[in-house]
């Protein structure tokens, strides 16, 4: 945890719950999966965004899948992660920014815990190969997100109409993506 402000949110417990819910919602055993989360600030995530996406600006969450798992066709299910020699599912890495998350939660009139939970669920689904580059993929991913969040007692984050959101997550296996195309901002 690079930014100590995350401690006030009990991020470790929140992240474990969000990741477990995302994995369970995707039909995977959370006990077998491994992922890391860097809890940082806008300055750090801007450096990561610049290094991996050529966008030197802060964002809410980034994800780096351990392997390419994307679907073979738009709207199709991604490939399931393969266990390593010890039976573990290595998913990848995530980074989340305190500054951007708190600002967005305030702007969207959401609880910070609910917003961060949503972002971690979203990033975990990216680690599993889900994406939202085109409408069919977005419908699949967002539908799963909404079901997972509902299982945690969190309202549909996409329910309110407004400007089309965008996400700054790199597409699975596409860490050098620079076109910025996406369907939603979360």
Automatic annotation (TrEMBL):
**What cofactor is this protein dependent on?**
Zn(2+)
Q: What is its main location?
A: cytoplasm
Q: How is the cofactor bound?
A: Binds 1 zinc ion.
Start and end residues of each stretch annotated as Disordered: 159-186
Q: What is its EC number?
A: 3.1.-.-
Using the UniProt record, name the top-level EC class of this enzyme in a single word: hydrolase
| Record field: compositional bias (Basic and acidic residues) | 166-179
* Keywords tagged on the record: Cytoplasm, Endonuclease, Hydrolase, Metal-binding, Nuclease, Ribosome biogenesis, rRNA processing, Zinc
Q: Where in the cell is it found?
A: Cytoplasm
Function, as annotated, reads:
Single strand-specific metallo-endoribonuclease involved in late-stage 70S ribosome quality control and in maturation of the 3' terminus of the 16S rRNA.
Q: What is the name attached to this protein's record?
A: Endoribonuclease YbeY
The gene behind this protein is ybeY
């Amino acid at each position: 945890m690079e930014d100590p402000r995350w401690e006030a949110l009990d991020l470790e417990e929140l992240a474990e719950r969000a990741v477990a819910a995302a994995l369970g919602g995707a039909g995977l055993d959370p006990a077998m999966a491994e992922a890391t989360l860097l809890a940082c600030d806008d300055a750090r995530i801007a450096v990561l965004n610049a290094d991996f996406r050529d966008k030197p600006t802060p964002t809410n969450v980034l994800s780096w899948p351990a392997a390419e798992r994307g679907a073979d066709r738009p709207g199709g299910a991604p490939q399931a992660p393969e266990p390593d020699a010890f039976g573990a599912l290595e998913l990848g890495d995530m980074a989340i920014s305190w500054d951007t998350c708190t600002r967005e939660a305030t702007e969207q009139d959401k609880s910070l815990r609910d917003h961060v939970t949503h972002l971690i669920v979203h990033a975990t689904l990216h680690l599993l190969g889900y994406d939202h580059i085109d409408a069919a993929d977005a419908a699949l991913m967002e539908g799963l997100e909404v079901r997972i969040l509902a299982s945690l007692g969190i309202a549909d984050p996409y329910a309110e109409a407004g400007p089309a959101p965008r996400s700054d997550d790199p597409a699975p296996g596409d860490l050098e993506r620079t076109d910025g195309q996406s369907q939603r901002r979360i």
